[in-house]
Amino acid sequence: MPGSTMSSLPPSVRADLEKLQELDTQLQQLLLKKQQYEAELKDIDRAISEIEKLTPDAKLYKAVGTFLISVNKDQALQDLKDRKELLDLHVKTLAKQEQMLRKQMSDIETRVNSLMQGGSVGAGAAPGGG
């Protein structure tokens, strides 16, 4: 039973394992957000590619809330490039955060493994006297 196993661990190891779970949850959320941004970047790249093929006088519309607003080709391209630049920055930031979280997790795992292998589990038990 996992609960009884956790309770037999020293408090520092339990705290490390709980921290590891928190970091893993944060990492999963971060990876999901990064994946969403990367998917949007692919959509933007496709849109830019298609718009660049259009003639300068082509009719384009941009969704703004529940309305479609007419925009010219240059304006549409600039809006997409601005959004792409922002998303690229977000992805780079998330990649750095991912790297930091993975390092923290690795450090904790190393510490827990060394504590578990070092025999410090149960080291606080009182010697039997008789």
TrEMBL record:
GO terms for biological process: protein folding. Keywords: Chaperone, Coiled coil, Cytoplasm. InterPro entries: PFD_beta-like (IPR002777), PfdB (IPR012713), Prefoldin (IPR009053). It comes from the Archaea. Pfam families: Prefoldin_2. Residues 13-97 form a coiled coil. GO terms for molecular function: unfolded protein binding. The keyword Coiled coil applies. GO terms for cellular component: cytoplasm; prefoldin complex. CDD domains: Prefoldin_beta_GimC (cd23162). It is found in: Cytoplasm. Heterohexamer of two alpha and four beta subunits. NCBIfam families: gimC_beta. Belongs to the prefoldin subunit beta family. Molecular chaperone capable of stabilizing a range of proteins. Seems to fulfill an ATP-independent, HSP70-like function in archaeal de novo protein folding. This is Prefoldin subunit beta. It comes from Thermocladium modestius.
